[in-house]
Amino acid sequence: HLDIGFMAKEIAKSAHRALGLLIAKVKSYGGMPFNIYTRLYDSLVLPIITYGAAIWGQSERSCVNAVHNRACRFFLGVGKRTPNAAVQGDMGWTTPWCHQWMCVTKMWCRLSSMDDRRIHKRVFSWGCYNKNTKNWAHRSTTFFSKLNMQELNDLVNPLPWREVQGRMGRALQDSVNSKWQQTIERDEAVRGDGHNKLRVYRTFKQSFGTEKYVTLSLSRNHRRALAMFRCGVAPIRIETGRYGPNRLPVNERKCFFCDNAIEDEYHVIFECREYDEDRKPLMDLVHFQTMDLSIQEKMRQLFGSQDDLMIRTLAKTLWNCLQKRKVFFLAIM
Predict the structure, then answer these.
(1) Does position 290 have pLDDT exceeding 60, yes or no?
(2) Burial class (CB in 10 A: 0-12, 13-18, 19+), 176
(3) Is the pLDDT of residue 260 over 90?
(4) Distance of alpha carbon 84 from alpha carbon 77, whole angstroms
(5) End-to-end CA distance of the chain
(6) Most buried residue, 24, 57, 165, 289, by most Cβ within 10 Å?
(7) Alpha-carbon gap, residue 311 to 322, rounded angstroms
(8) Sequential DSSP letters for 12-73
(9) Whole-model pTM?
(10) What are the two backbone dihedrals, phi and then psi, of residue 284, each rounded to the nearest 5 degrees?
């Protein structure tokens, strides 16, 4: 169809089908560890995503990113309203955009090292030297310059792929990290006129990378509860008050068990009297560490912990709190 966008959409459809097969296998086996899930994703889904990426991969494709985000959200157990920045930041997987440009760079090195008598090299050279046409070569050279890798544009002394591979990977990841940092630090929402959901997330998450709780062998329910609280999408009033026809201002999203307190993540974990019994094992672990600290420091120490026992206890506590809250609402309905 001479339409690169159409090509990317068809590839995304195939990748969604492959991911659906992987998800079905995970459910039939009752779950999978993070390393196995990652290995299967890289073996079954990623090759489809990167098929032909040397041609169509010079721009970010939302349809392709949707496959990546769906795979991350499924493993964490969170819903579609979870911010992509938080899901990607906790999983720590290389983004499709990086894979796409690695394919483009590999093709560039192959073409630039090709014999001048071949028709492919002649067309490639014409595209590079024709400055009046914004073609594949023009977009590649512009991008290489943005990454401070202008030496790739030298066709007289072309660099082999093995020399470029490591440096290009680091440059692409640095670009992703910078964009991710800007996303979590912004005050306004990406869409609409609301505020950024990642108000709590950015207090304890400072760098893009796989989190410890993702790699631990937690039950799916416990991992899901911890991920929802981390990503700001736990079903508590600070989040549920965003939606519906009667959207509430932040100061009116009060706790059902406490009279004048806003039901946010900090209130559920540290203050709400309804969960005193559930949080006791957790408080026994963090009592001395969280004494006389600010709210931000407490949340950073709790969610930023790398201790296995702390993570498991926190995840179990959050799940028990959500279950008690769910039982309460079922009883009053």
Answers:
(1) no
(2) middle
(3) no
(4) 13
(5) 55
(6) 57
(7) 17
(8) HHHHHHHHHHHHHHHHHTT---HHHHHHHHHHHTHHHHTTTHHHHTTS--HHHHHHHHHHHH
(9) 0.89
(10) -65, -25
